[in-house]
């Protein structure tokens, strides 16, 4: 397989980074207009992941994530305005349900589209004041989380984690104690290195998920759970180490670290934590094994097994 | 980004698979077993020679060095095809992967003919003399001395951890040739035949078993080495070390990915750690594939080593713990019997866990890898 971005994807990544950096302090509706104008909502899965990673990095205040990865895969189209989806069977903690123009609801009779105002869901109080979450009162809900929603939340969380690492690295390079920058201490370096490795791992699995969705590969269900679980595992390390490396300053309201710590933690808690998706991955892997028979379980030099990647993902 | 690797790679893979099906030694032909990383029994020498002659030993090299000028993705497919069947293409891995590779990169034409080709054809075997009692992570602090006396070097000192030295014909030895220079700038590399007077090799057992003899201490007392055995320029040994190990490190992640695949197959579990293992194996391959694209920071190879070796260690420990008191049993069949592998790690679950520390200690400890990531990738002060 080829796991490098191609030229167009690299260009897109640069464009998104520049756009997001330039419009950092703009209000949400202005940002939203920019995203629409640039056509980011229509991006196919891998390109969408590129956009979402950078929006996660910037703690994006718009309903972009919910519209592109909660509404669209359920409704099979983009909403007029913004959108979100109800697909976990409970209707609780639905991203942007308080402000979405359209809401796609997964019910026993299939997908139903309702307008946001019609539903009138009130925003819930949560620890992250920049995130919109609401509980939705609709009957006959059934669970069926789209792979794209798991991937989207995973790569957004990876973006938050990258931001936390960048902030922490900048801090430990500047903060002087015992007459040297604390970043010169190995105890500090090793925490930062562990954050970096966790991010690389989660990022790779998130893009793998996007790629399996883009190519409708049979591994897409497992890849989506891997992505969500890895993002959750990643934020555990990055939250803990990033917070710790900042010392008491990271605990203050005025330090922007708090914004990204909260986003990262919310990214794990929504749509199933790392533990939930580790178990989901085991279940999906078991089902896959049952479908494909005992082949690939054990192999000696003469035993033909399924392809390497097939072995890896079960 | 795309999932398939292209027909050029898949045709190459299929051709190699057909070759293996036709030529692989059978279990009856494969005996006796190799006892160390430089002990290559006659049947295994014949096998390596078969690979060399067919251009399947090091496909990335030209035919005179056992290859067919394959591309990097094709070389990866070759290694994957071997690992899928748990096959070693050489029972003297450091002889091919590091010693011959170093000579091909830094050696003279004469040295390539005299040493590299016989190594590749499995006519001789080699070991790598780098570490010393006082030079492990701080390799550049090595103290084995080489003094030029006419057209010979006179070598005095000691190496340790020299895998397979007692079975090897030649040692690629890193020596201090200029004690006055800064420590990275006074190192040279010599090929020292093990039958030279003054070379004493003492194998010592690992914790796995009293008769598991691969590690060696090697003592050099007034060992006279012809000047023509100098590999690369005098006092430029540090760049040889970087070059030869760098080559090895490019594909090192793949051997970790293989170990993870082995654990996936050998230790299926309903516990959550098994999901983490599936994820680690997939992530390592993805990051490794990305590395093939070129233009990557070599320091990022540290990410692959750290991720891979630590994942193996965690999964091996979990596999051991899964068994509870049954994990005490030794010997124990923990993987399929395989005459084509030099791994002894299938002897028990405890041994598999114990051997996982080779990955986190050898070739730069996990702590050193974290330093490299922090300093060279993240830019933290030294």
- Record field, number of beta strands of chain B: 7
Estimate the strand proportion of chain A. 5-15%
Strand numbers in spatial order across the main sheet of chain A: 1-3-4
Number of helices, counting only DSSP H or I runs of 4 residues or more of chain A: 11
Radius of gyration of chain A over alpha carbons?
Answer: 20 Å
Assign the CATH topology of the largest domain in chain B.
Butyryl-CoA Dehydrogenase, subunit A, domain 3
Question: Over the alpha carbons, how many angstroms does the gyration radius of chain B reach?
Answer: 21 Å
Residue stretches of chain B low in confidence (pLDDT < 50, at least 5 long) are none
Query: In the CATH hierarchy, what is the superfamily of the largest domain in chain A?
Result: Butyryl-CoA Dehydrogenase, subunit A, domain 3
Oligomeric state of this protein: heterodimer
Number of strands of chain A: 7
The shape of chain B, in one word, is: globular
Q: What's this model, at a glance?
A:
The complex is a heterodimer of chains A (314) and B (382). By secondary structure, chain A is mostly helical. Chain A contains 11 helices and 7 strands.
Account of the protein in words:
The complex is a heterodimer of chains A (314) and B (382). Chain A has 314 residues and is mainly alpha-helical. Chain A folds into two domains: 7-134, no CATH class; 147-290, Butyryl-CoA Dehydrogenase, subunit A, domain 3 (Up-down Bundle). Chain A is 56% helix and 8% strand. Chain A has helices at 7-22, 28-38, 45-57, 64-75, 116-119, 147-174, 186-214, 220-246, 257-269, 274-292, 308-312; strands spanning 83-86, 94-95, 102-107, 110-115, 133-134, 176-177, 180-181. In chain A, helix 8 (220-246) packs antiparallel against helix 9 (257-269). The longest helix of chain A is centred in the middle third of the chain and has 29 residues, at 186-214. Chain A starts with 6 loop residues before the first helix and ends with a helix. With 382 residues, chain B is an alpha+beta fold. The mean pLDDT of chain B is 93. The interface between A and B is large, with 64 and 58 residues.
């Amino acid at each position: 397989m080829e796991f490098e971005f191609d030229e167009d994807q690299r260009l897109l990544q640069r464009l998104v980074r520049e756009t997001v950096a330039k419009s950092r302090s703009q209000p949400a509706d202005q940002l939203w207009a920019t995203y629409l104008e640039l056509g980011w909502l229509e991006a196919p899965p891998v390109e969408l992941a590129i956009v979402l990673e950078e929006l996660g990095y910037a703690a994006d205040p718009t309903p972009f994530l919910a519209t592109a990865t909660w509404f669209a895969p359920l409704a099979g189209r983009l909403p007029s305005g913004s959108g979100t989806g109800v697909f976990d069977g409970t209707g609780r903690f639905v991203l942007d349900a308080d402000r979405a123009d359209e809401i796609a609801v997964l019910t026993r009779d299939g997908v139903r589209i309702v307008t946001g105002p019609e539903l009138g869901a009130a925003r819930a109080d949560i620890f992250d004041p920049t995130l919109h979450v609401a509980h939705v009162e609709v009957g006959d809900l059934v669970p069926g989380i789209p792979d794209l929603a798991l991937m989207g939340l995973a790569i957004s969380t990876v973006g938050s984690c990258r931001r936390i690492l960048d902030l922490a690295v900048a801090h430990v390079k500047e903060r002087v104690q015992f007459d040297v920058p604390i970043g010169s201490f190995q105890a500090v370096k090793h925490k930062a290195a562990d954050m970096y490795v966790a991010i690389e791992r989660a990022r790779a699995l998130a893009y793998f998920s996007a790629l399996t969705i883009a190519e409708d590969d049979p591994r897409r269900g497992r890849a989506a759970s891997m992505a969500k679980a890895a993002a959750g595992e990643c934020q555990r390390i990055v939250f803990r180490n990033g917070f710790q490396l900042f010392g008491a300053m990271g605990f203050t309201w005025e330090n922007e670290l708090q914004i990204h710590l909260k986003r990262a933690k919310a990214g794990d808690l929504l749509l199933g934590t790392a533990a939930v998706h580790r178990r989901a991955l085991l279940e999906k892997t078991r089902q896959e094994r049952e479908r494909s028979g005992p082949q690939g379980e054990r192999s000696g030099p003469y035993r033909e097994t399924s392809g390497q990647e097939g072995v890896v993902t079960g | 980004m795309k999932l398939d690797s292209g027909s050029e790679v898949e045709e190459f893979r299929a051709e190699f698979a057909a070759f293996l099906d036709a030529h692989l030694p059978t279990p009856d032909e494969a005996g006796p077993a190799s006892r160390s990383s430089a002990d290559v029994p006659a049947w295994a020498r014949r096998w390596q020679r078969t690979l060399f002659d067919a251009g399947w030993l090091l496909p990335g090299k030209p035919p005179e060095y056992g290859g067919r000028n394959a591309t990097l993705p094709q070389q990866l497919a070759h290694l994957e095809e071997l690992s899928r069947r748990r096959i070693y293409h050489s029972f003297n891995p450091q002889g091919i992967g590091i010693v011959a590779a170093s000579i091909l990169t830094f050696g003279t034409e004469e040295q390539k003919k005299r040493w590299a080709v016989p190594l590749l054809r499995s006519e001789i075997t080699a070991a790598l003399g780098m570490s010393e009692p006082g030079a492990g992570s701080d390799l550049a602090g090595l103290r084995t001395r080489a003094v030029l006396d006419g057209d010979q070097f006179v070598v005095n000192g000691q190496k340790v951890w020299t895998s397979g030295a007692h079975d090897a014909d030649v040692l690629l030895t890193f020596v201090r040739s200029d004690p006055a220079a800064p420590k990275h700038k006074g190192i040279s590399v010599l090929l020292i035949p093990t039958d030279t007077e003054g070379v004493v090799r003492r194998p010592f057992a690992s914790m796995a078993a009293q008769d598991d003899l691969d590690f060696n201490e090697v003592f050099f007392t007034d060992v006279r080495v012809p000047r023509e055995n100098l590999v690369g320029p005098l006092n430029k040994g540090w760049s040889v070390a970087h070059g030869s190990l760098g080559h090895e490190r490019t594909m090192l992640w793949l051997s970790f990915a293989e170990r993870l695949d082995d654990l996936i197959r050998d230790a299926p579990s309903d516990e959550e750690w098994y999901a983490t293992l599936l994820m680690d194996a997939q992530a390592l391959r993805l990051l490794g594939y990305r590395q093939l694209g070129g233009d990557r920071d070599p320091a990022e190879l540290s990410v692959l080593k750290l991720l891979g070796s630590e994942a193996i260690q965690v999964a091996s420990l979990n596999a051991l713990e899964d068994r509870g008191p049954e994990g005490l049993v030794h010997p124990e069949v923990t993987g399929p019997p395989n005459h084509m592998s030099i791994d002894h790690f299938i002897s028990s679950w405890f041994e598999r866990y114990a051997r996982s520390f080779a990955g986190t200690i050898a070739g730069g400890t996990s702590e050193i890898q974290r330093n490299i990531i922090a300093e060279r990738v993240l830019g933290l002060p030294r």
